[in-house]
Specification:
Length: about 200
Protein backbone atom coordinates (compact mmCIF):
# COMPACT_ATOMS: atom_id res chain seq x y z
CA UNK A 1 0.00 0.00 0.00
CA UNK A 2 1.51 3.32 -1.10
CA UNK A 3 1.32 6.62 0.81
CA UNK A 4 -1.70 7.86 -1.18
CA UNK A 5 -3.66 4.68 -0.44
CA UNK A 6 -2.70 4.93 3.22
CA UNK A 7 -4.02 8.51 3.38
CA UNK A 8 -7.27 7.49 1.70
CA UNK A 9 -7.67 4.57 4.11
CA UNK A 10 -6.99 6.85 7.09
CA UNK A 11 -9.54 9.40 5.88
CA UNK A 12 -12.14 6.69 5.30
CA UNK A 13 -11.66 5.30 8.81
CA UNK A 14 -11.99 8.78 10.30
CA UNK A 15 -15.21 9.37 8.33
CA UNK A 16 -16.63 6.09 9.57
CA UNK A 17 -15.79 6.96 13.19
CA UNK A 18 -17.42 10.40 12.83
CA UNK A 19 -20.54 8.87 11.27
CA UNK A 20 -20.69 6.14 13.91
CA UNK A 21 -20.40 8.67 16.73
CA UNK A 22 -23.10 10.90 15.25
CA UNK A 23 -25.54 8.04 14.54
CA UNK A 24 -25.08 6.31 17.88
CA UNK A 25 -25.35 9.41 20.03
CA UNK A 26 -28.27 10.82 18.05
CA UNK A 27 -30.21 7.57 18.48
CA UNK A 28 -29.28 7.40 22.14
CA UNK A 29 -30.39 11.01 22.51
CA UNK A 30 -33.81 10.33 21.00
CA UNK A 31 -34.26 6.96 22.71
CA UNK A 32 -33.83 8.40 26.18
CA UNK A 33 -35.65 11.65 25.37
CA UNK A 34 -32.71 13.60 26.70
CA UNK A 35 -33.08 17.35 26.99
CA UNK A 36 -31.15 19.55 24.58
CA UNK A 37 -27.80 20.55 26.12
CA UNK A 38 -27.89 24.19 27.07
CA UNK A 39 -25.66 26.76 28.67
CA UNK A 40 -21.93 26.31 28.80
CA UNK A 41 -21.42 23.66 26.11
CA UNK A 42 -23.88 25.06 23.58
CA UNK A 43 -22.45 28.55 23.92
CA UNK A 44 -18.87 27.35 23.38
CA UNK A 45 -19.84 25.22 20.38
CA UNK A 46 -21.66 28.15 18.75
CA UNK A 47 -18.78 30.49 19.54
CA UNK A 48 -16.20 28.10 18.09
CA UNK A 49 -18.20 27.48 14.91
CA UNK A 50 -18.65 31.21 14.49
CA UNK A 51 -14.87 31.42 14.01
CA UNK A 52 -14.61 28.61 11.46
CA UNK A 53 -16.17 25.31 10.43
CA UNK A 54 -15.13 22.37 12.60
CA UNK A 55 -15.75 18.66 13.07
CA UNK A 56 -16.89 17.10 16.32
CA UNK A 57 -13.37 16.06 17.31
CA UNK A 58 -11.99 19.50 16.40
CA UNK A 59 -14.67 21.15 18.55
CA UNK A 60 -13.70 19.00 21.53
CA UNK A 61 -10.05 20.02 21.14
CA UNK A 62 -10.91 23.69 20.59
CA UNK A 63 -13.12 23.90 23.70
CA UNK A 64 -10.46 22.10 25.72
CA UNK A 65 -7.95 24.70 24.55
CA UNK A 66 -10.37 27.62 25.08
CA UNK A 67 -11.03 26.58 28.68
CA UNK A 68 -7.32 26.51 29.44
CA UNK A 69 -7.21 22.73 29.47
CA UNK A 70 -9.61 22.58 32.42
CA UNK A 71 -12.46 20.82 30.60
CA UNK A 72 -12.92 18.78 27.45
CA UNK A 73 -16.43 17.75 26.36
CA UNK A 74 -17.03 14.10 25.56
CA UNK A 75 -18.31 12.66 22.27
CA UNK A 76 -21.51 11.82 24.16
CA UNK A 77 -22.19 15.53 24.67
CA UNK A 78 -20.79 17.01 21.45
CA UNK A 79 -22.42 14.77 18.84
CA UNK A 80 -26.00 14.90 20.18
CA UNK A 81 -25.70 18.68 20.38
CA UNK A 82 -24.42 18.88 16.79
CA UNK A 83 -27.30 16.65 15.70
CA UNK A 84 -29.81 18.92 17.42
CA UNK A 85 -28.23 22.08 16.01
CA UNK A 86 -28.31 20.56 12.52
CA UNK A 87 -31.93 19.40 12.87
CA UNK A 88 -32.91 22.94 13.85
CA UNK A 89 -30.91 24.56 11.04
CA UNK A 90 -28.46 26.30 13.35
CA UNK A 91 -25.56 24.53 11.63
CA UNK A 92 -25.14 22.85 8.27
CA UNK A 93 -22.93 19.96 7.33
CA UNK A 94 -20.20 20.68 4.79
CA UNK A 95 -18.80 18.26 2.21
CA UNK A 96 -16.22 15.96 3.78
CA UNK A 97 -12.68 17.32 3.48
CA UNK A 98 -9.42 15.69 4.62
CA UNK A 99 -11.49 12.94 6.20
CA UNK A 100 -13.37 15.39 8.44
CA UNK A 101 -17.10 16.05 8.45
CA UNK A 102 -17.26 19.69 9.46
CA UNK A 103 -20.16 21.91 10.46
CA UNK A 104 -20.71 25.55 9.63
CA UNK A 105 -22.82 28.06 11.52
CA UNK A 106 -25.89 29.29 9.62
CA UNK A 107 -27.42 32.75 9.96
CA UNK A 108 -29.95 31.26 12.40
CA UNK A 109 -27.02 29.87 14.35
CA UNK A 110 -25.37 33.27 14.44
CA UNK A 111 -28.61 34.82 15.69
CA UNK A 112 -28.80 32.15 18.39
CA UNK A 113 -25.18 32.87 19.40
CA UNK A 114 -25.96 36.60 19.66
CA UNK A 115 -28.97 35.81 21.85
CA UNK A 116 -26.93 33.44 24.03
CA UNK A 117 -24.17 36.05 24.36
CA UNK A 118 -26.62 38.67 25.60
CA UNK A 119 -28.11 36.23 28.12
CA UNK A 120 -24.63 35.25 29.27
CA UNK A 121 -23.56 38.88 29.73
CA UNK A 122 -26.76 39.76 31.60
CA UNK A 123 -26.31 36.77 33.89
CA UNK A 124 -22.73 37.77 34.65
CA UNK A 125 -23.77 41.34 35.34
CA UNK A 126 -26.64 40.22 37.58
CA UNK A 127 -24.28 37.86 39.37
CA UNK A 128 -22.52 40.95 40.66
CA UNK A 129 -25.45 41.45 43.02
CA UNK A 130 -24.92 37.99 44.49
CA UNK A 131 -22.84 37.45 47.58
CA UNK A 132 -19.37 36.13 46.96
CA UNK A 133 -19.04 32.75 48.76
CA UNK A 134 -15.53 33.64 49.95
CA UNK A 135 -16.75 36.62 51.95
CA UNK A 136 -19.88 34.84 53.18
CA UNK A 137 -17.69 32.67 55.38
CA UNK A 138 -16.19 35.68 57.11
CA UNK A 139 -19.25 37.88 57.62
CA UNK A 140 -18.99 37.33 61.35
CA UNK A 141 -15.58 39.03 61.42
CA UNK A 142 -16.20 41.74 58.80
CA UNK A 143 -18.38 44.78 59.63
CA UNK A 144 -21.57 44.98 57.57
CA UNK A 145 -20.53 48.30 56.07
CA UNK A 146 -17.30 46.74 54.77
CA UNK A 147 -19.06 43.69 53.32
CA UNK A 148 -21.40 46.03 51.42
CA UNK A 149 -18.39 47.92 50.09
CA UNK A 150 -16.73 44.66 49.03
CA UNK A 151 -19.86 43.55 47.17
CA UNK A 152 -20.18 46.91 45.43
CA UNK A 153 -16.52 46.95 44.41
CA UNK A 154 -16.61 43.39 43.09
CA UNK A 155 -19.80 44.04 41.16
CA UNK A 156 -18.34 47.21 39.66
CA UNK A 157 -15.21 45.33 38.58
CA UNK A 158 -17.26 42.49 37.10
CA UNK A 159 -19.67 44.72 35.19
CA UNK A 160 -16.85 46.95 33.92
CA UNK A 161 -14.95 43.91 32.63
CA UNK A 162 -18.04 42.53 30.88
CA UNK A 163 -18.84 45.86 29.23
CA UNK A 164 -15.23 46.34 28.13
CA UNK A 165 -15.14 42.84 26.64
CA UNK A 166 -18.32 43.55 24.68
CA UNK A 167 -16.95 46.87 23.40
CA UNK A 168 -13.65 45.29 22.36
CA UNK A 169 -15.52 42.63 20.39
CA UNK A 170 -17.41 45.32 18.52
CA UNK A 171 -14.48 47.72 18.10
CA UNK A 172 -11.35 45.60 18.34
CA UNK A 173 -8.07 47.40 18.89
CA UNK A 174 -4.88 45.59 19.80
CA UNK A 175 -3.63 48.71 21.58
CA UNK A 176 -6.76 48.95 23.74
CA UNK A 177 -6.68 45.22 24.45
CA UNK A 178 -3.05 45.43 25.59
CA UNK A 179 -3.97 48.34 27.86
CA UNK A 180 -6.85 46.39 29.38
CA UNK A 181 -4.60 43.37 29.96
CA UNK A 182 -2.00 45.60 31.61
CA UNK A 183 -4.58 47.04 34.01
CA UNK A 184 -5.91 43.58 34.91
CA UNK A 185 -2.41 42.19 35.36
CA UNK A 186 -1.39 45.09 37.60
CA UNK A 187 -4.49 44.63 39.77
CA UNK A 188 -3.85 40.88 40.00
CA UNK A 189 -0.22 41.43 40.99
CA UNK A 190 -1.20 43.87 43.76
CA UNK A 191 -3.78 41.45 45.17
CA UNK A 192 -1.29 38.57 45.01
CA UNK A 193 1.35 40.67 46.75
CA UNK A 194 -1.14 41.64 49.45
CA UNK A 195 -2.12 38.00 49.95
CA UNK A 196 1.54 36.93 50.22
CA UNK A 197 2.21 39.70 52.71
CA UNK A 198 -0.76 38.73 54.88
CA UNK A 199 0.21 35.06 54.85
CA UNK A 200 3.76 36.00 55.80
CA UNK A 201 2.58 38.17 58.69
CA UNK A 202 0.33 35.36 59.87
CA UNK A 203 3.25 32.98 60.29
CA UNK A 204 5.52 35.42 62.07
Amino acid sequence: MNDEEKDESKQLKHQMREKKHMTFHKRNWLRHNAMVPKGFLRYHVLEALNQKAMSGSELMDEIHKHTGGNWKPSPGSIYPLLAWLQDNAYVKELPTEDGFKRYELTQSGKDLLEEQTKIREKFRADAGFMTNPFFDRFFSSIPQEKTNQIRASMRRLLVSTIKLGKTLREKYSEKDLDQALKILDEASVKLEEMNSKLKGEKHE
